[in-house]
Prior knowledge:
9 helices; 47% helix; Beta-Lactamase; Arc Repressor Mutant, subunit A; 6-stranded antiparallel beta sheet; 2 domains
Amino acid sequence: MSNTSETRSTTVHSVDRAISILQVLARRGAVGVTPISEELGVHKSTVFRLLATLEARGLVEQNSSRGHYQLGYGVIQLAAGATRKHDLSVTSRPICMALADEVGETVNIVINDGEEAITIDQVIGSAEITSVNWVGQRSPLHTTASGQVFLAMMRPEERQHILDRGLERYTEETVVDSERLETQLAEVRRLGYAYSVDEHEIGLAGVAAPIRSLGGGVIAAVVVSGPSFRITSENASELAEHVLAAAAAISERNGFPKAE
């Protein structure tokens, strides 16, 4: 029984490494064994063995420069099997449902649409007494946790362009001073998540983390939101652990490499 378990564990580990190799090739293009080995922290002999297996199945091929590997046409065949259009709200929903069950609060998927954040999907948490449908609703980037994630992670010149247009006040807690907001955004970058309370609407708080694409760019945010008497500065960091884990899981579904 023990040998069977060990064999199964080894097989799963090999599959995980093989998938990591495919993700490296998708991100970097044609590359040799050594760079793959260094990026994944895996011995070169292991990388070579897995590449040989992937090449035999048509998922990897050697290009004109011998010793350099790239994705093969077998990957295209696999992609063709995904008959449903890749949609962030579809791929993220199972993870959002699990997150809503874990924390009991509403979970939203939000994207950056110019100078506003717009909610594209929502899962209602069990703690909600009344459900507010946020799907399709927009909010200025500086007033919400998701918007602050987008501002924090965007290019400095892009952020400056938005700040130069002025920051509208929505509540007494809205940060409208650009220098103060920059300090707040630096903290978002340090922590990896944003916490906002009463900045867009009195009584509403949220914790948001970035969802990344294959190349590492921020394409959306996952947000846990609820009343400010339940989501507080005392429990925000604990809640953020769940949100960060969900964001990482959704990012992985979009091809972003899984953190070791």
